[in-house]
Design brief:
mainly alpha, 0% strand, Lipoxygenase domain-containing protein, LipOase_C_sf, dioxygenase
Length: 83
Amino acid sequence: MLLRNADAQCHQMISHLLRTHLFMEPIAVATRRQLPSLHPLWKLLSPHLRGTLAIDTFGRHVLLPAGGVADLVLSIGGGGLNV
């Protein structure tokens, strides 16, 4: 049970948060800044990037600060994220 709990926490923090949300944030910013709205890549990516910056900002301010949700819910806490 402890191993599954640790695996679930690693999945949420590394696979989901880091490799999904935080990895896509610079791509979302670069797409909005560099590609015109008529570009084919803009049309392909824009539905998938909609809301990315908002949810990442929310996650940084609510989930990750000291005393945030990560500290309260996860046994590794927010300090365990400083790997």
